[in-house]
Write a structure and sequence with these properties.
This protein has a single domain, classed as lambda repressor-like DNA-binding domains (434 Repressor (Amino-terminal Domain), Orthogonal Bundle), CATH 1.10.260.40. The chain has 5 helices and no strands. The chain has helices at about 1-10, 15-20, 25-35, 40-50, 55-60.
């Protein structure tokens, strides 16, 4: 969700502004932006519409390195 913060700052939007636009609390949006919580499908679609990114891009985590799972 780091892309969310980057785009939000580029547009000079506050977290409160984004939260109000998509109908959630600022705290909930902050948790999504800081990757402490995943958005519901409804919220992900609203974020997609507001930010103009695909849901895949919105959910992409550039800081994560996938850990191989043992089979």
């Amino acid at each position: 969700m780091n892309q969310l913060k980057q785009i939000r700052l580029e547009n000079k939007w506050t977290q409160q502004y984004v939260a109000d636009k998509i109908g959630i609390t600022k705290s909930a949006y902050s948790n999504i932006e800081n990757q402490n919580r995943s958005p519901s499908l409804k919220v992900a679609i609203q974020l997609q519409n507001l930010f103009g990114l695909s849901i895949e891009k919105l959910l992409e985590n550039k800081n994560s390195n996938p850990t191989p799972t043992k089979v």
